[in-house]
Write a structure and sequence with these properties.
The protein contains no helices and eleven strands. The strands form two sheets. Strands 2, 4, 5, 6, 9, 10 and 11 form a seven-stranded mixed beta sheet that branches. It is globular, with a radius of gyration of 13 Å. It starts with a strand and ends with a strand.
Length: 126
């Protein structure tokens, strides 16, 4: 069972950048599709970005397209989320998630991801 640990969150001013990392314990990390989700206080957990096992396909929420970039390094068992031009509405707890099945049209479905990290707080001040 893969274990996930996020890092890289913090406090940043609007317009700034952060890079989140998610380290996986599993040696077969390359078999997993990965996703990033976020949850603002009092709101549901929302999809942010996803990447297939090889890194050849990526998916983004409309709200972050052109500002965020997801990538992975299978040799390091790590997935990244580069966040640029941050806005106050990007504030929330960011979660890394993994799934073993094929990632298709359901790339944003929270319930399809079977493994989750503990989350890292991102706060964007305006």
């Amino acid at each position: 069972q893969v274990q996930l640990a996020e890092s890289g969150g913090g406090l940043v001013q609007a317009g700034g950048s952060l890079r989140l990392s998610c380290a996986a314990s599993e040696r077969t990390f390359g078999n997993y599709a990965m996703g990033w989700f976020r949850q603002a206080p009092g709101k549901e957990r929302d999809f942010v970005a996803a990447i297939n096992w090889s890194g050849g396909r990526t998916y983004y929420a409309d709200s972050v397209k052109g500002r965020f970039a997801i990538s992975r390094d299978n040799a390091k068992n790590t997935v990244y989320l580069q966040m640029n031009s941050l806005k106050s509405e990007d504030t929330g707890v960011y979660y890394c998630a993994a799934r073993l099945d094929y990632i298709g049209r359901d790339y944003s479905a929270t319930g399809k991801y079977g493994y989750w990290g503990q989350g890292t707080q991102v706060t964007v001040s305006s």
